[in-house]
Specification:
There is one protein chain. With 187 residues, the protein is of the alpha+beta class. Helix content is 18%, strand content 43%. The chain has 3 helices and 11 strands. Strand 1 and strand 2 form a beta hairpin. The radius of gyration is 18 Å and the shape is elongated.
Length: 187
């Protein structure tokens, strides 16, 4: 696979659309579309910038999950607390801000932060990090009028049932599965 051409085709409010033209393994041209949260000056910058964080949060052997309305699928799903880095903000500051905005909770302790990974590699160059945190405080909604979020803590048994009956984002489903299987006990 060899990249032949790279161009921006649209500038949206939050996403930028690009077309990448490749020569496939048989030498035939293929055009591929992606979106990015960032301005990509050239093909060397593809997938280089971290955009935000997903937060796997625990409190007293319970997992924090958000039930939120997602416009892209026009329904409520279970998700992790997550958000985009603001200009000049550190990852730790982003974790604290997003956690507070979406849940009212405070970070008690950051347990681990994974290195950046691609969020939707089939359609985007967006990279995020996953943080594992212990949280404290009471649940309150400080989200914008454009978000519908219900945060709650769930036991392993409750999460097991949700996995059987509800729809999840893939990242939340993975975190929930490992929580149910008790793989998080060593964090």
């Amino acid at each position: 696979m060899k990249l032949q051409n790279f161009k921006k085709v649209k500038d949206g409010k939050y996403l930028k659309n690009y077309e990448l033209t490749y020569l496939n393994k048989k030498g035939k041209e293929k055009t591929y579309e992606i979106v990015s949260r960032h301005e990509i000056p050239d093909e060397k910058a593809l997938g280089r910038q971290v955009s935000g964080v997903s937060i796997v949060a625990y409190c007293e052997d319970k997992l924090l999950l958000l039930k939120e309305f997602r416009m892209g699928v026009n329904r409520e799903i279970y998700n992790l607390c997550a958000g985009m880095l603001e200009d000049g903000e550190s990852l730790e500051e982003c974790i604290q801000r997003e956690l507070y905005e979406e849940t009212g909770l405070q970070v008690k302790r950051i347990l681990d932060i994974l290195k950046p990974s691609f969020s939707a590699v089939a359609i985007s160059d967006v990279k995020t990090q996953i943080a594992f945190v212990e949280v404290e405080g009471g649940l309150e909604d400080h989200s914008s009028d454009n978000e519908k979020i219900e945060a709650a803590f769930y036991t392993r048994e409750e999460v097991r049932e949700l996995l059987e009956t509800e729809e999840f984002s893939s990242r939340a489903q993975m975190a929930a599965y490992f929580f149910v299987k008790n793989f998080s006990k060593n964090l």
